[in-house]
Amino acid sequence: MTKITIEPAAGTWSVRAGGAVIGESGNALELSENGYPPVIYFPRSDIATAFLDASDRSTTCPHKGTASYYSIVTKSRTIENAAWSYESPKDDVSEIKDYLAFHGSDLVTIERV
Length: 113
Prior knowledge:
Elements: E1 4-8, E2 13-17, E3 20-25, E4 29-33, E5 39-43, E6 52-61, E7 65-73, E8 78-85, E9 99-102, E10 108-112
Antiparallel strand pairs: 1-4, 2-3, 2-10, 4-5, 5-9, 6-7, 7-8, 8-9
Pfam family, one: NTP_transf_9
C-alpha cells in the first residue's frame, strides 16, 4: 500500500535553473511517498512563472491524480518537462494544489538555503 505524507518543508528552499534563481520559499511542502525520494513542492506564488512554459506532457498517478508539466526557459536553453503540478489533485493530497515541483538535474538545482 502506498503511503503519502505531506508536511511543511523545514527552512527556506530555492530552485535554480540556468544559473538563475527562479523560486525561493519558506512555505514549501515536502511530499514523501514510500519507495521514492522526498519531493519539495513550491507554492506557485513563490516561483517566477515567466520562466515556465506549459508543455503537452501529462502523467497520471493513481494516488495523486494527473500532473501537468512545464519546461523551464532560460536565456541559453529550454529544459524540457522540468517542473510539474497537480492542478486538481486527489483529495488525499489536496495540499499540493497550486504548488510546483521540479526535477533536479545537472541543469536544475533544488536546495535548502
